[in-house]
Amino acid sequence: MLLLSNLARFEVHLASGEHRRASVVDFAIDLLADDHPPVTRIYLRTASHGATRLALPWEAVAHIDWVRRIFHVHDLAAAQAVAPQDHAPPAGTSDVLLHRDILDALILDLQNRRATRANDLALRLDGKTLRLCAADVSLRAMLRRITGGRAGRGLVEEKLYDWKYVEFLRGDPSAVQAGAGYHRRIARLPAGEIARLADALPYLHAAELVTLLPDKLAVDALEAMSAARQLQVFEELDEPQQLALLNLMAPDLAADLVGRLRTEAARTLLSRLAPTPAERFTALLRFPEDSTGGIMTNDVLTVPASLTVAEARAALRERLREPDFIFFIYVVEDENSRRLRGVLTLRTLVTAAENRRVDEVMNPYLITLRALTSAQDAAYRVLSSHLAALPVVGREGQLLGAVTIDAAVAQVAPASWTAQVPRVFS
Hints:
Helices cover 33% and strands 23% of the residues. By secondary structure, it is α+β, with helices and mostly antiparallel strands.
């Protein structure tokens, strides 16, 4: 096993014996080329080039003298001169620099589900190819670097994290959009575990992590985060991604999030959302946070009482693809008045005879909530009802939305538990 802290003390000599030598500054790897990515270039510093660095292809290395710590090369003609500020991989590549980019950076160990720091990097020689194979996160690695290798020798196996299971973060959400290389293995974890990892990261790293995810998984992870972290992360995303995620979020959670944004930012997003979600969010934002209306969702299924069961099934077929909460279907007088008449379960809708009218098979005996009553009282009423949700109605009996069991539990649970409560119905 070869350590970056040791390789950084190597020199580069001409194999011809000509008295020209250079010090190793850094190594570039092709991050996405393999589970254990290969070194592609060595960055060198020479006395004759002053502040200018030389980028030498790894293939130019002819021989390695491990005892004297020397990379022998045939010539330096293949080296490209670069200024210190350009000490970066070519545009359009997935290359990163081991010392500058990865050493001391935050990495995600996906096997052990933790965020940690790369105190040293372990490489191995695979034929003539030098590969990054693990991150050393031990305190011994830090000691080894501080003392120039005089202390901290030896490796602690359990502190070596196989690079195959590491996600490298740059602390820059815009790097994802700029095309930087990522394994995106983080997308294989459940949303709750991603949220737990994000809560432990600095907020810019957490935003970068969310940007790596497919939109639907990103929404689930955001919804599982603590409210403070959710807001920090969301504010760091670019506007197109913010709009994409808001369109996918449950209306009650999206409205809560938008309501915590700065006023001007909230107005801008609402003005650029698709009409339907914008109307739902605006309707929810009218209610105080501590009211029943403030914790309800208004993305509920409704069907007119006058339809037959067959007609209701046909009318709802497409709508069933959209809302999160589909356990109950609320029966209204008509779609204009939305005056609540009763409720159907999905089971009833599926099993009832097709020629029967909806108002014949619905349950007309409803427990309803008022939008401006206390959210705490509404939550306890939902919990005591042992139902998945209770409908919320206005002064004229019109359906406004529903408080789900998820929202009720989140309301009465201790604040430290809120982000950990599973969302079953919304």
